[in-house]
Design goal:
A hairpin with a 2-residue loop joins strand 9 and strand 10. The strands form 2 sheets. Strands 1, 2, 3, 4, 5, 8, 9 and 10 form an 8-stranded mixed sheet that branches. This protein has a two-stranded antiparallel ribbon with strand order 6-7. It has 8 helices and 10 strands. It is globular and about 45 Å long. The chain is α/β, with parallel strands linked by helices.
Length: about 220
């Protein structure tokens, strides 16, 4: 399995492209897991389509980024919280070469995954799992979140059972809150923390081997 933990949706950024062009191939099918949205921003199907539907606010950026690797629009589909059923969502996951988890709220994404009963299908996926921000940390069996606008207090959360050998500090800018959180994780979990600089770093895990791309700082217990 290949896991790609990113900072943003610019998956064709120069520090990523040479590495990812060997992994993201034109024949791949992509399923975008658009389950991480904020409840007060998307309340119904109309608001969902305004962001993720064809021509929506995020749609073109996502499709164009995969297009940089030769993956055509007709091989990219989205999990739609408002129109998919448990069965259609499961089939999409089972048929995907690439699972792409979007940024937003990772705990809400996990809750929606559980609501759709997708845990087993996602756990069985052995292709490529990739995502940015929330979509990066959710690939860890347990992840932490430093205090920010969405999460005022430090916390540990349960993610997907893909990776468990490290923790990931996303959007790292060396703030006091981030550094305190990292030290807490090191002391309590005794595992390294990889801190990806905001919009500048990524973590690639291929069959258990870790490769750091761009600007990534390593903190060890």
């Amino acid at each position: 399995m290949i896991n790609i933990l990113l900072e943003g949706y610019n998956i064709d950024a120069p520090y990523l492209y040479d590495e990812l062009k060997q992994i993201l191939l034109p024949h791949h099918t992509v399923v975008v897991v658009a389950f991480s949205f904020r409840d007060d921003r998307i309340r119904d199907s109309t608001e969902w389509y305004a962001l993720y539907g064809a021509g929506g606010f995020y749609y073109n950026g996502i499709v164009d980024s995969f297009g940089s690797y030769g993956i055509p629009e007709d091989r990219i589909t989205f999990l739609n919280y408002f129109s998919d059923t448990k069965e259609t969502a499961r089939k999409k996951v089972e048929n995907a070469d690439i699972l792409y988890f979007l940024g937003g709220l990772p705990d809400r994404m996990m809750q929606r995954i559980e609501e759709f009963e997708l845990q087993e299908a996602l756990a069985k996926h052995d292709g490529i799992a990739m995502g940015y921000s929330a979509g990066a940390v959710i690939q860890l069996a347990e992840y932490h979140l430093s205090p920010d606008e969405d999460y005022p207090a430090f916390g540990y959360y349960r993610g997907l059972p893909y990776l468990d050998g490290f923790y990931h500090e996303v959007h790292y800018e060396g703030t006091p809150d981030q550094n305190r959180s990292i030290q807490k994780v090191l002391a309590e979990r005794k595992k390294p923390v990889y801190a990806t600089a905001s919009m500048q770093g990524a973590i690639l895990v291929k069959n258990g081997e870790i490769k750091l791309l761009g600007n990534v700082k390593i903190f060890k217990p």
